[in-house]
Amino acid sequence: MEHILGQNWTITPAGGSTGEAYYAQNEGKRLFLKRNSSPFLAVLSAEGIVPKLVWTKRLENGDVITAQEWLEGRELTTEEMQHPRVASLLSKIHHSSELLDMLMRLGKHPLTPEEILLDIKENQKLLEHINVRFEVHHAVKYLEKNVMHVAHDHHVVCHCDTNHNNWLLSSDQKLYLIDWDNAMVADPALDLGMLLHTYIPKGSWDSWMKQYGVTADDHLFERMKWYAVSQSLSFIQWHMMRGEHVEADRRIQKLYDMMTRHKINI
Which stretches make up the Aminoglycoside phosphotransferase domain (predicted)? Predict the structure, then answer.
């Protein structure tokens, strides 16, 4: 990275699962750098969903480096996920024809429940050597039983990881949704399910959904439930494959709590 910016810049890793993100600082100038971000980032920046894209540079080896504004700010707390501005920004994303058009042109096809279930079951085969707990097998059975009941033909751009630490509140109180590496074209229930089941008290769902811009029906709630379970399993499997068993166990407990709280049965 130093040869791109020059020797006067201080560059430090920004963490994250890919190890491809960095902070860069030079006196009063500050940037957030990332290697091989999707071209999708430019549209997200133009829509005000992520911090402003400053420049993009292609290296001789074909890698692409992007630089964004490095903003003072913090992630949302779990309680702040209930704020109407979260529902409003997610609604803006899901209703953006520009975002959907760009992601489709980048070759993303609508993700179906059948594809998600197949991927989860394939990963389970790879993890057979690990003593996977009963809760995981119970959740897979639930997905199998209900996969035919969650078909939906309206697809939008989904972030696919609406965890509170991906919501950035800047020092000037502007809200962003960051880390779009796993974005897909899918049923909006994919984003809604995990967010509401994790952060929003059940008694507040109707009011939250009104802020989002829809009146929910039973089919939407069923789809949200199915996707919340499937995403939970995907995260559990991801941590297991990385050998992060403590985090996988924590996710399994959260899955169990969610399925118990919302009476998700086989």
Answer: 14-223
CB-count burial class (<10 Å; 0-12, 13-18, 19+) for 163: middle
Instruction: Render each residue's pLDDT in the chain as its tens digit; 266 residues.
Output: 555 676 678 888 886 555 578 888 887 788 988 887 778 999 999 999 999 999 988 888 888 889 999 998 999 999 999 999 999 999 999 999 999 999 999 999 999 999 999 999 999 988 877 778 889 999 999 999 999 999 999 999 999 999 999 999 999 999 999 999 899 999 999 999 999 999 999 999 999 999 999 998 999 999 999 999 999 999 999 999 999 999 999 999 999 999 898 788 76
Catalytically annotated residue among 153, 161, 218, 257? 161
CB 79 within 8 A of CB 18: no
Nearest to 196 by CA among 49, 76, 81, 80: 81
The backbone torsions φ and ψ at residue 124, rounded to the nearest 5 degrees and listed phi first, read -60, -40
The amino acid occupying position 236 is I
Contact 184, 191 (CB under 8 A): no
Q: Domains in the chain and their CATH numbers? A: 2-70 (3.30.200), 75-261 (3.90.1200.10)
